[in-house]
Amino acid sequence: SGHVQLPPPQNVTLLSKDFDMILTWTPGEGSPPNVTYTVRYESQDRMGKWIKVPHCKNIRRTSCDLTCVLPNLFVKARARVKAVSERYQSPWVESQFKEYHLDVELAPPALNVNVEENLLHVNASFPLAACVESFSWMYDLNLWEAGSEDKVASALFVSKQKRYEGIFRKKTVTIDTTALRGNYCLSARSSLQSIDFKHSKFSQPVCVLLNHKG
C-alpha cells in the first residue's frame, strides 16, 4: 500500500491581534472530520530547534496562542503546524517570522470614568497577557466638549517599568473639571514606544455631563 498523507494545513499565518501573537491556519482541502493539529515554534536565536507547545498538541481548533510561549519577545520567531488523523499525518507547514515587540498590534483600552464634584477620575484597562504587562505601555487620553472636535486636554497614562504590578491597570488620571460645563467626551488609545512609535485606534468615546445645574 502507498504511503498515505493527510492534506497539509493551509494559510498558516503568525499574526498579532490585540496584544497577542497567534498562529492561525485553515484545514487542508479534503481533510477528514476527525483531524487534529500539533504546533511547534522556532526562534532565530536557536535556529533548527523546534520546540513543542504543550497546549497546542492534538487540538481540534485552528489557532494557537503563542504570546507567552515565545521565550524572547525581542527575537523573531516562527511556528509550524501539521495535521494528524489516526495514524496518518500531513507534512509540517511553516509561518513567516515575526517579532512580538516590533510586530505587536495594539487594541484600544476600555475606559472607566468616574464623575465626582469638580473632578473626573479616569482609568484604562487592557486585556494583556501576564508576560507582556511589564512593557512600557502608554495611554493617550483625549477630553473634548461634545460637538466640538477641539481637544480640551490631553493627558498621558504611563506604566512605569518597576511599578506596573497592581498599579499598572489601575493607574488613575484625575482631571479638574471646575471650569468645564456641559457634555464632555473621553477617548483613549494605547501606544508603545518601540523602534517606531506605534499606537492603536482610539476607543469609542465615553461622554459625561459635567457641572450640570438643575
From TrEMBL:
One of its GO terms (cellular component) is plasma membrane. GO terms for molecular function: cytokine receptor activity. InterPro entries: FN3_dom, FN3_sf, Ig-like_fold, Interferon/interleukin_rcp_dom, Type-II_Cytokine-TF_Rcpt. This is INLR1 protein. It comes from the Eukaryota. Residues 8-103 form the Fibronectin type-III domain. Pfam families: Interfer-bind, Tissue_fac.
